Design the sequence.
């Protein structure tokens, strides 16, 4: 590096050849989330920075810590430029991501939470008719209500659920 800073081309080319595998190893170790192309881009950025900033290296100091610092900062810059997203090809995870056929396992929990916002009798009616599949006549007989009263209560309960849903979306 001393010879390169004095303008000697051959030692500078030898330096770049010697440090490139070291830089690549550091970038791959610290930037594993960048992917192969991203890591290689960072290696090129590091080499360019070394070329442009090589005069900032103090000749009385070891080269390796300066090289590590430049590389580390370029890896951090790459992560910052990319933001908080992580790019992974979805095709690699198709088998893992595929949801098993059947009902949504969280739907019942969410439905119960919303139905519990209703008054207890309305909640019973919605569960009996809407979830359990009882008829209005059977539900009315069990709750001591007429079939017409059950239908009116069900209609009001469904309207309340719709209002609750609208408030949750807002």
Sequence:
């Amino acid at each position: 590096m001393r010879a390169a800073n004095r303008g000697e081309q051959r030692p500078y080319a030898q330096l770049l050849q010697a440090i490139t595998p070291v830089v690549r190893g550091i970038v791959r170790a610290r930037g594993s989330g960048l992917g192969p192309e991203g890591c290689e881009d960072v290696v090129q950025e590091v080499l360019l920075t070394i070329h442009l900033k090589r005069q900032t290296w103090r000749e009385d100091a070891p080269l390796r810590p300066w090289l590590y610092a430049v590389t580390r900062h370029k890896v951090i810059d790459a992560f910052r430029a990319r933001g908080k997203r992580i790019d992974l090809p979805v095709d690699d995870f198709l088998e893992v991501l595929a949801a098993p056929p059947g009902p949504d396992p969280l739907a019942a929990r969410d439905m119960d939470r919303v139905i519990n916002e209703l008054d207890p009798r309305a909640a019973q009616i919605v569960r009996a008719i809407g979830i359990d599949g009882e008829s209005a006549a059977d539900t009315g007989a069990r709750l001591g209500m007429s079939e017409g009263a059950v239908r009116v209560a069900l209609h009001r309960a469904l309207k309340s659920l719709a209002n609750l849903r609208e408030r949750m979306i807002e």
